Protein 1
Amino acid sequence: MEIEHFTWLRTHKARYDVSSSGVKPIPLDDVMKLGEAEDFTENLVNIYGVNKRNLAITHGTQEGNFAALTALRELGKVEHVITVIPEYEPIRVLPRFLHLRQTEIVINESLTELFNYIKKNSVLFFSNPNNPLGIFLSKKLLWELSDELRRKDAYAVIDSIFLEFVESNLRDLPMENMIFTFSTSKFYTMSELKVGWVVGDESVVKEINGIVDLVSPLVIDLNLKYVSILIQNRKWVRERNLGIIMPNVEIMRKIIKEAGDYVNISYVEYMPILYMRLRCRGVTGSYFSNKLLSKDVLTVPGQYFGKDDGIRIGLGSVLRNDFEIAMRIIMESINEECAGLHDPTDADS
Ligand SMILES: Cc1ncc(COP(=O)(O)O)c(C=O)c1O
């Protein structure tokens, strides 16, 4: 088995690399200057307003996803997994890998489409906000989802790695029949270390803790210390991240306005990624990403999210000067490819 998204990232390099969906890592020395470490589990109890029994510590979000789906399988709670397209490839692949029956549904504007698939022993498994589109279920909708799942005896595993970009208050998330997975990989980024955590339904979290103990017990204390400092300084991290992301968003909006006819942008405020659909006939995301590579710009084609209709561009891992050059190259290439070929009837298909 292969996660092609990772192969793409590992086998390509470019001067203008906007392939990452995270924010520039925070150097460990800067983390140390922010304060003292506390008990990380206590930090989580306070931030999420939950009980320790609702918490598991992992090494990353994907480990949390793996443990959550496996836990539900062990508990006999999964007959059918529902995933969406477009979606982060490891999420789409995991149910198949576990030999679970899977249905993939295509979403366009909203994740609420998922509500139609709730049945006894179904598990909704999705990223919220969605990678690559950024669309997300608000807290109010998450409560409605939890109510509906409880009524129908179904569950949701929600990869929430991007949640803090769009939601600063993490209290009052619904716990019943819900599992949320998190890590430091996007919002609290450090290149030297990583920690993950799971928040959710007590009975499932108990099983998750058992699975983590089986596969990869005990996150190293030093990692927990750094993440404890960062998570206590969430406001600082937010400001710092937005200081990188928002100037790039402004540049993106300016450049798209200048040459907007051939693209359609999916961008949700404060997210570190945008998805650019190409509105010119015959030009796929992978063709276009390869063309950009020849001009020293690295993006991620839609192919790796299940729909090859555009490219994902990261907004948080390069500073404005490089981002502007990357965007100009992207728009120039679109004009080269699409001028004369634009088919407006394709626009919203
Ligand atoms: C939706 C989603 N989940 C999980 C991950 C990876 O998380 P981790 O490194 O914590 O396993 C990514 C990385 O891009 C992601 O986009």
Protein 2
Amino acid sequence: MTFFALEQLGKLYDGYQKPFSVAGHQLLLLQLDGERYLIENRCPHMDVPLDRGQLLGSSGIRCRAHGIEFDLVSGKSKGPLADTIGCLKKYPIVYQGTCIGTEL
Ligand code: FES
């Protein structure tokens, strides 16, 4: 496993969302209500990038393509299509010094 630094901790804030391309992985780092999430930057519905999605409440994101909402904690989608759509792919968050990153 190799550590990849993504961002300085001091640059994070509630509402933060930024895509990263790391070692062939498309990642999306987010912060809502002080919680940080690192997910694949891809909507499980039709593979549209999730960056610039609408952040909802304390742990939700709405894809801008068709409006499906996902819970960032469970990764599951909400609504009538929930049983037919896969979950968000989550990545481990790793802290190293003043950086937040991941290990791949
Ligand atoms: S591609 Fe995201 S809701 Fe359809």
